[in-house]
Amino acid sequence: MLRATFALAIVCVCLTVVAAQPPKPAVTMDDIKKAWQERQDKVKTLKMSWKRVVVKPKGSLDFVIPRLRLPNVTAPQPPRDVRLLGEADFVLSEDRFRFDTRRQTWWMASQSPKPYRHSAI
After folding, report:
1. 10: burial class by Cβ within 10 Å (0-12, 13-18, 19+)?
2. What local confidence, expressed as pLDDT, does residue 98 receive?
3. Buried residues in 60-92 as b, exposed as e (16+ CB within 10 A)
């Protein structure tokens, strides 16, 4: 009985303290605009990443064959339509940007796609 009375007294004190706090003022549109502008001013860097698919149609690389001078490489290259998978990243930061791709490319010597990494600053 003593524990129940003590617990009831604690609950009453807590409810009194919570009820005695003043209500918060309503949020206005100006408050929202100010908070949004502060957030926009803090953002200094934009980062994006995406997956990409490059399609090389049959024979699209035939113009490269004379320059490569690789033995046993004949037209058409690639011999069939090829889908090459990859990823790309873009970072924009104040006065500079970085574009980075990771992708497969067709390699005529081995007749199979090979990973390729390219960066531009």
Report:
1. exposed
2. 93
3. ebeeeeeeeeeeeeeeebbeeebebebeeeeee
| Strands of the sheet with 112-120, listed across from one edge | 45-56, 82-93, 96-107, 112-120
Q: How far apart are CA 85 and CA 80, in angstroms?
A: 16
In sequence order, the 6+-apart residues with CB closer than 8 A to the CB of 6 are none
pTM: 0.46
Taking all residues of the chain, what is their mean pLDDT, rounded to a whole number?
79
Where do the structural domains in the chain lie, given as residue ranges? 45-121
102 within 8 A of 87, measured Cβ to Cβ: yes
Taking alpha carbons only, the member of 108, 17, 22, 101 closest to residue 62 is: 108
pLDDT in tens, 29-57: 999 999 999 888 887 888 999 998 889 89
| Cα–Cα distance measured from residue 30 to residue 7, given in angstroms and rounded to the nearest whole number | 45
